[in-house]
């Protein structure tokens, strides 16, 4: 079993409860954090919910690069992983993010 830590982030002036854990797979290690306010009845900054996701490389062969548009604004991210350990760690990290966001979205309290 792995330890999950609770955290708090601010996204556009709104507090978002987050959950964080370390994913270790062989020689690959990622720190992952995710959280959301859930649905708030809107899709823009003024009324909509907030969601936060972070994946950091602690060890392993990973590449994280921003995607920019023609105006230089960051509009996405590219994540590349090398090796079987990298693939498995990335999959576990994404699974954790999905579970954390889904639990908060659906207000599950396990």
Strand-helix topology:
Blueprint: E1 5-11, E2 14-25, E3 28-36, E4 51-59, E5 62-68, E6 74-81, H1 83-105
Antiparallel strand pairs: 1-2, 2-3, 3-4, 5-6
**Could you tell me the strand content as a percent range?**
over 45%
Please describe the biggest sheet, giving its number of strands, its sense, and whether it closes into a barrel. 4 strands, antiparallel
Shape: globular
The overall average pLDDT, rounded, is 92
Based on secondary structure, the structural category is alpha+beta
The tally of strands reads 6
Order of helices and strands: EEEEEEH
Report on the architecture of this protein.
The structure is a single chain. By secondary structure, this protein is of the alpha+beta class. The protein contains 1 helix and 6 strands, in the order E-E-E-E-E-E-H. The strands form 2 sheets. It has a 4-stranded antiparallel beta sheet with strand order 1-2-3-4, with helices on one face. A two-stranded antiparallel ribbon has the order 5-6.
